[in-house]
Amino acid sequence: MLTLVRGLRRLGGNGATLVALVATATLLAVCGSMLAGGSTDTASTQRYAAAQIVVGGESSAVVTREGKDKDVALPGPRPLSAEVVDTIRDRVRGAGATVVPDIAARLAARSTKDWIPVTAHGWSARQLGPLGLTSGSAPTNSGQIVADESLGWSAGESVEILTEAGPQKRTVVGTVALPTGATPRQAAIYLTDEAATALARRGARVDVAAVGVLLPAGAPNAEDVADDLRTALERKGVVVETGDARGQIEFADLARARGDLRTLSGSLLAVVILVTLIVVGSTCALALSRRRREIATLRAIGATPRQMERLMVGEMAAVGFVAGVVGLVPASVVTKVVGWLLRAVGLLPHDFALALNAVAGISAVLLTTLVALATGWAAGRRTAAISPVAALASAAAGEQKPARWVLVLGVVLTVVGVAASLLPLVVDGIVGVAVAGGGGLLLVFGTALLTRPVVGALFQVVSRRLLASTTPHRWLAGAGMSGQASRLAAGVAPMMLIVGISLVQILVPASLSAAAQREAAAGLKVDHAVVAAGYGLPSAVPRSRDQHRPVTPVVRQQVVGVTTVLGGPETFRYTATGVRDRAGDLLDLGLRPGSTWDPTTTLGTDQAVLGTMTAAALGAAVGDQVEFVLADGTTVKPQVVGVFERGLGLGDVLLNYDTLTDHRSVSEPVGRTANLLLLPDLSRRPPVGEVVSAAEAFGAGGDAVSTGIAASTVPLFALFAYVAVSVANSLILSVTSRTGTFAMLRRIGADRRQLARSLVVEGLSVVAAAIVLGTAAALLPMVTVAYGLTGTPWPAIPSWFYLVVVGAVSALAMTAVVLPGRLVLRERH
Amino acid sequence: MSTGTTAAGGAVPALRMTDVSKQYGRGPGAVRALDSVSLRVARGSFVAVMGPSGSGKSTLLQCAAGLDEASSGTVHIGQVAVTGLDESQRAMLRRDRVGFVFQSYNLLAGLTAYQNIEVPVRLAGQRANPELVRELSERVGVSALLRRRPHEMSGGQQQRVALARALVTEPEIVFGDEPTGALDTGSARQVLALMRELTHRDQRTIVMVTHDPVAAAHADRVLFLADGRIVDEETTPTVDVVLRHMARLEASGC
Ligand SMILES: Nc1ncnc2c1ncn2[C@@H]1O[C@H](COP(=O)(O)OP(=O)(O)O)[C@@H](O)[C@H]1O
Ligand SMILES: [Mg+2]
């Protein structure tokens, strides 16, 4: 560490700029790689490898309002309709191709041990692999199955599969394996086509997950056929893929993770760019202020402002480019770390590889060069344009006023941020809350831009107080901070950003989770529930003597609410809950007066009960019709029969159980199986699944808040690392830039300890300023969001999180002040 | 502070160095920067130290002022033996009994002239007597500038403030390392005249390293250093005489 610091000091101001830019390149390359959606190598197709063309359902639907379309994301791929299968048959008949629909059902199976999630396919789908029988024979009746060899079952073995009716016996009559000998990524069993069709039936239709087209030898180019199919199937909600992209259809979870990653990083992009601009800008300003005498001298000996500007721009462009290239080395490591973290918190599938993307890397180098160029230009312009006399004078003063446009922009951002943060007080529901969250970010950035004057004023007061002290190190700290706004602001700005952004970033998810926790606790009349990982639970639960509180199947599904805003469609993602039979016995919904639905009756297929936030966002009241897009892309328009208080905890909307299970995506459990079973008493625990607290089953358990925090901070890991590097960088520069002053003070009798302590006092002041400013910037939206969601002004941010942020920032800053301070003071003078 | 020594009369010199040697490094690469230097500086005198670059001027100053430890020999400032003091005792000694004026990095940028003058007193955890600061600033001619910050003053004015700071603890002795090196001729002359006055009228003691014969000519006594030894001394320096000494030194050096 010390050698590193020493090396940086040699490089002087440019070293710090270089470090800032290397970190910037790293950050941009990492974010770019996330935006590119990870690498494709894990997703190459297995079970569809023999089909040159694979057609699957899109994971999105289109909603239309007043002639305007909007794409909405679905929780998984839509099943293919019979019409689509027929169209494909018609189209490829000429080519002599074989068309094989893959009828698939997600369920659980077991031989003697635990239930494991498997996909059941029709036997004909084995041709798509092509999978070969490695033992036994094909299934010939509904009691027989063929299993993947990797499951370890052998022909003749008796196994069970889990359907909506409960466990059912099957006999393994054969085993299959991939021709490559690879272990399948998703375990599968094969039923006769008739049995598979019966199993995969949902309401009126059968789930066809994909259709494979096997072209005969010497057939036309697969791409041409695929293009023809694309034309024929346009606007039918399907994707037609060839080559590696076929894996996207086979492994919907990977495709979905890629999409999620894109959305996630896309939403972070603005934050990332703003942070880099602020950090690079402030580091450059600090570095330049160290070189101001050199610049002033050049100006004095006759360099024109134009020449100076060119000099700076040229120099920064070169530094930016080198930094960009160098930054790719840490980027490849950081990308892997981010991937690992995202997998660890469950945001990515366990075998999803996130690696540095070439295009992202090149873009990062170019962007870094651009950022360097821009800051060099801005800084150079200001420094170069002043007269030589003024330049020499301000070189001595060591202070330069911030540019006017920076201050104006800072004020504008702050004002807009304040206005946005106040929205939850006026607008009900999630819209106001979301806008306030965004307003918080604006406030943080606005404050960051205003750091110079604010910190200047703040430290004027602090240093005056310190200068009144007769304790030498306090006085020395005061002397060191007096008139040093730009140096101190460069240290404070990235730190306040880190505090502000982490608070704002978790603000909405933490508040939502906390509210959900409270509502689930109040709304659930049972303590326990059964859940299963990766498969559905039987919904035909045996009725017991206690008819009043039976074990109750519940389905939960992501749906999209549609409404009209400003003459176009506006959509919201909601969690819909469907309770089989009567919800009222096990849930205390907190129905608002005016509701027409009796919660002790089953909710009709054309009825919906909305949570208050949902009702507010959709602008719907009892009696109105609302529009939802279900997981398979079907649009339903039920009538609102009630509005209930506990939407955040129990589900934003209640719909009929069968309506939800009949419209699942192909990656969801088979038939009318349940996502969870409410368990009124533990003695009636079914022989499948895992018993958890009911709140946890509803995603509102004891760790809901920390899970929410992890989900919203882990994607920011690279950004936090970046800001940490910047904080250390600018503080080290700030301390080492004072070597001369320390030498002088040492000579006139300050001892090392006094100086070291004065640095500690200064470091603590900088840390305190950053924490106060960062917290203050985030405070208003914290209060209004809490108020909007819970009706109380107490922010839902847990104190442990705040302490972690504050502790990490303080430790980082103090290390960055004390270590280089040691070094500077150790030198002989 | 130093009234005791004053009462004892001129017998105790402000600075006494006996057989002081200073060696940097060990073994074959070692540099003997000072070689058995002995020196007495009487109270109220103005001494200049000259010599070619690398002759040991800065080292002499550092050893004399207790910034650095001599390898051998003894150093006394007034009645205090510098040799044998530890790091923080030497810092206290510099704070209370020694004053410093440098070529650059002289004043703290964020502080006013008044606050800059106060620094050594503050380092001792005390407040300067405003009366004393005012008197001193009048003496060095900056009483009208006390509220200004360094960048609002000329180089000469800054150096006067630095002199006032060096004197504020009423030190035994003031050391200057090329104190006029960064000043224009006019300001340099005024500062030199002031230093001379301070020694003669106010009985202050100043030892100054310089390479400028004009500066040296303002001193009472000029020591010439070569290869770590005092090789020559001039007690009636004029510019011509100093130049002649230097020429001779440089010739023998080659
Ligand atoms: N810290 C040090 N380490 C090693 N050698 C040094 C050090 N400081 C000075 N020297 C050497 O000691 C000799 C005297 O240096 P110095 O006192 O700085 O001379 P002057 O000030 O007269 O130019 C020179 O040869 C110089 O190289
Ligand atoms: Mg020297």
From TrEMBL, chain A:
Membrane topology: Multi-pass membrane protein
Transmembrane segments: 268-289, 316-342, 354-379, 405-423, 429-450, 488-508, 716-735, 755-780, 800-825
Annotated keywords: Cell membrane, Membrane, Transmembrane, Transmembrane helix
Name of the protein described by the UniProt record: Putative ABC transport system permease protein
Main location: membrane
Compartments, as annotated in UniProt: Cell membrane
GO cellular component: plasma membrane
Residue ranges occupied by any ABC3 transporter permease C-terminal domain in the UniProt entry: 267-388, 719-826
Entries under Pfam families matching the protein: FtsX
Organism: Streptoalloteichus hindustanus
From TrEMBL, chain B:
Protein name from the UniProt record: Putative ABC transport system ATP-binding protein
PANTHER family, per database record: ABC TRANSPORTER RELATED, IMPORT ATP-BINDING PROTEIN
PROSITE patterns linked: ABC_TRANSPORTER_1, ABC_TRANSPORTER_2
Keyword Transport: yes
One function term, GO molecular function aspect: transmembrane transporter activity
Domain spans labelled ABC transporter: 15-252
Pfam families according to UniProt: ABC_tran
Annotated InterPro entries: AAA+_ATPase, ABC_transporter-like_ATP-bd, ABC_transporter-like_CS, ABC_transpr_LolD-like, MacB-like_ATP-bd, P-loop_NTPase
Protein's UniProt keywords contain 4Fe-4S: no
Keywords linked to the UniProt accession: ATP-binding, Nucleotide-binding, Transport
Cellular component per GO, a single term: plasma membrane
